[in-house]
Specification:
With 463 residues, the protein is an all-alpha fold. It contains 22 helices and 2 strands. It has a two-stranded antiparallel sheet.
């Protein structure tokens, strides 16, 4: 065993053990057994020894979910749904939708970046309450959100300062580097090099070549570290890599949002084909995540693929749900989200009631867990409807992982409605420019990224 203290990764050993105990309970292990182990062992064992002991926690007999991580198992638990539609529109239409997806993602990400740091609720304020307080303290009152965040608010004495000043409206001139966008770029580069036949090992090799260890977070940090420790010195073939070990060894973040934010390029590569988009997402997600962590990426990729042919948000969400196990926690959580939005007639004006409902339903998850953030994205799409501004502002006002949610909701909406329907007030400040901290994409025009995605999609559509 490699002790946690020898190479911690994202957090300290003690913090990771605490997260692992919570993660095991969420996966259906016996909570009383885990509580007893934590109570009697803390301080008497090393973090690595305690981690190892926790792995023996028995599964609850009454756990109602079946959540496989292998592709065949996932597909066997799916419900009915349309797996592919015919795409017959012109290059101009495809380009407009693709540019809409890229711009939608960039604008939504830039909107949420300054308040991503508001996730800390240790003082009793939730992230959505912190965002509301920051905006309400402005003169005039800027709540509900309707513009990029200002760098300064009288409310910051209560809420704390916003971050990412280059994404605040006083300074905004381009899409600044962000992990949400870097993964979209990385996916595009893999597809340009390998096509849709890429493997999980291709993805990991791309990480090794193009991402520094400091550019990854949580589950990605642990998977990166584990792969380097065991495999990177020999870079073997796919069959030699024990991905289960890479994903689970000292990785309590394996169902957090990291895979979900990597979904977009797989959806862009497969317009009208949510089943293929979900499979590409699975090949990527299985490298760092399990169960609902994988499903989140598959759900988003499938929604994006469907968004290129559907124009009704609920139909898009349903297409995403059709590609994940209907026996999973994520499927249940999105169903509850749809029901909550339906209770309020899918009206944007009811967003605060819906957000409050989401926090009651899913507030027990970590702020960067897959399920609560996926639910918030779905709610933003369902409430925002055809209005891009409402979609991204609701996604961001909901808090939790605000830049991820603004980016994902904006990407899906943009694929549905195209770049021409994204208001200038949102896209003009970015000056069609992306800085990604990746070779050949720093800087690059956002429209060139979209053009390359069209090139990939056309190859997919022709096969």
């Amino acid at each position: 065993m490699i002790p946690i203290s020898d190479f911690v990764g994202w957090n300290t050993g003690a913090q990771m053990v605490e997260e692992e105990a919570k993660q095991l309970v969420e996966e259906g292990r016996d909570p009383q057994w885990i509580k007893a182990v934590m109570g009697r062992s803390r301080g008497r064992q090393s973090d690595a020894e305690l981690w190892a002991e926790l792995q023996a926690a028995p599964q609850r007999k009454d756990f109602p979910f079946r959540e496989p991580s292998d592709l065949d198992g996932i597909r066997s638990e799916r419900g009915p749904g349309t797996r592919q539609w015919t795409v017959g529109y012109s290059d101009d239409v495809l380009m407009d939708r693709m540019l809409g997806a890229w711009l939608g993602r960039c604008c939504g990400c830039a909107l949420g970046k300054p308040v991503e740091c508001f996730m800390d609720s240790s003082d009793g304020l939730s992230s959505k309450e912190r965002i509301k307080a920051y905006l309400q303290a402005m003169t005039p009152n800027e709540y509900p959100l309707s513009n990029y965040f200002s760098l300064i608010s009288p409310g910051q004495e209560r809420t704390g300062n916003v971050g990412c000043s280059a994404s605040c409206r006083e300074n905004l001139a381009f899409m600044e580097s962000d992990d949400d966008i870097r993964y979209t770029v990385l996916g595009q580069r893999i597809l340009l090099s390998k096509g849709v036949q890429f493997t999980t090992l291709d993805v990991m090799r791309a990480w090794m070549a193009m991402l520094t260890y400091g550019q990854v977070c949580t589950a990605e940090t642990q998977a990166y570290r584990n792969y380097v420790l065991r495999y990177h010195v020999r870079l073997g073939v796919e069959a030699e890599v024990d991905w289960t070990w890479v994903v689970t060894h000292q990785n309590p973040f394996r169902e957090w949002i990291g895979a979900q934010i990597r979904a977009d390029s797989w959806g862009y590569a497969a317009p009208g084909n949510p089943e293929l988009a979900a499979e590409l997402a699975w090949r990527d997600a299985r490298m760092s995540h399990v169960k609902n962590g994988i499903y989140g990426e598959m759900f988003v990729a499938a929604m994006i693929a469907a968004a290129f042919v559907l124009d009704e948000p609920l139909a898009v969400v349903e297409a995403g749900l059709a590609e994940i196990p209907q026996t999973s926690r994520l499927h249940r959580d999105i169903r509850q989200t749809i029901d909550l939005c339906r209770e309020h007639d899918f009206k944007a004006e009811a967003f605060e009631l819906v957000l409050d409902g989401l926090y009651k339903l899913f507030g027990h998850y970590h702020a960067v867990h897959t399920n609560n953030n996926a639910a918030l994205v779905a709610a933003a799409l369902l409430l925002g409807g055809n209005d891009y501004e409402k979609v991204i502002t609701i996604a961001v006002m909901g808090g939790w992982d605000s830049d991820c949610n603004g980016a994902t909701a904006g990407s899906i909406h943009g694929a549905i409605h195209g770049a021409k329907n994204i208001p200038l007030k949102w896209k003009a400040p970015l000056n069609d420019t992306l800085f990604s901290e990746m070779t050949d994409y720093h800087p690059i025009s956002i429209s060139e990224c979209a053009r390359r995605s069209v090139e990939i999609a056309r190859k997919t559509l022709s096969t």
